[in-house]
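Progress report, Aim 2. The chain analyzed during this reporting quarter is listed below.
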Amino acid sequence: MSNVSGIFAGNSRYATDFQSVVQRSVLIASLPKTLMETQKSSLDSQASALRSIETAFGALQSALSSIGSSTGMSSYSSHVSDGAVAKATISAGAMEGAYSFEVTALGSYTNTMAPDAEGDWLVRVADPAAESLSPSITSFTLRVSGEQDVMVSGNNLNEIAAAINKSGKPVRATAVNVGPPGDPDYRLSVEATKLGPVSISVSAKEADDTVREFLAGIGPAGEPATYLVNGKSVSSTARQVTLATGLTVELLAEGAATATVKRSTGGISSALSVFANAYNAAASEIAKHRGQGGGALTGNGLMGILSRTLARIASHSSSGSFAVFKDLGLELGKDGLMKFDAAAFSNAVEGSFPDLIAFLGTAETGGFLKAATEQLNAVTAETSGLIGAEQQMLDSQITYQEDRIAEEQTRIDALTERLNAQMAAADALIASLEQQAIYISNMFESMRAASETYS
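Predicted structure tokens for the chain:
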């Protein structure tokens, strides 16, 4: 509302009355705008309340996802009886069980290095960043047994080693100093990345087609790693071996050990506890908008839909060994809130993991998780969910009210400006007439006084 106080200089005796006329007129004209602002405030409160409900249901959906995750790979754990011998890693497909094995040899990698510099085709390298294997050759052929030949190039020893490492072949190269202190002698050293004997060659042709070999095969050939499983010897070109589907073991030292894979319900118990808390938070948000003195969304039909959605989730049943949530220590109280008894859950599911998984299911295949996910998606989906649709409608109404309020304010401002101008003009005219009346009255008074003086 425009401020209309103090707009007159008070030149006429009616200035205050004029000001009151403007104020009353603006106040009456502002009544529709005041009503619109009240309506917008109500819509703002509804939108804010709905956002809180949306957040609570989003947390409930996340809790459902956590239950699904807890029944997957996170429910598995692995242990090696002798951690010095090996360490285990599990992945998809792992199954509970104990897997005994014995590492009989860790194996070794083939390593070869450039020979001593001889003649004028192989130089002694004192600075690997400035000098190369040969004064005239910059392109070389890398040959690894079982692999296709590849060309590598470099203007110095470091660049050649880097090119070999980027070649994609199962080798790694470096420049190694074999010279005494003060007299460096850098050699190209190439090592296989697979255990066992590997043929490695770095060669080049000179202008006369003479083939030069730049590795001397220094060092023993590699050996594969070997281990025993159920009395059968297995050979491997890597120290990471697969003992069973989903169970990988990294060999660390020779010796016997047992890798054990177990499945735990601890993660599921924690996820169900989080789910119960999220359910209660969502139920509590809805409860704020029920009954006399309820919140901004009291009477909104969406509240009933959301309540029924929660009720369907809590009352899920199955024909399996676990029929309802109460069988898992998760119970809905008379107050509409969930209570989770972790001890009861642990006792109920001991030795019954398959039955537990059958009841919970997955979000894609069936069981509780699929049913609950579908029910929540119906109200929370970003583009088609009921909560999002209600929020969009409220946002649209708020925008509409804001536009109407702005239009009303423009009309009120124009009315205020027009009334101010009219009242100011009237005030100025009356003030002028008052001045004229005073002038005439003074003139007559002067004439009367003069008449009395000269009579």
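Residues 386-454 form the longest helix (69 residues). Residues 1-8 have pLDDT under 50 and may be disordered. These observations will guide the mutagenesis work planned for the next reporting period.
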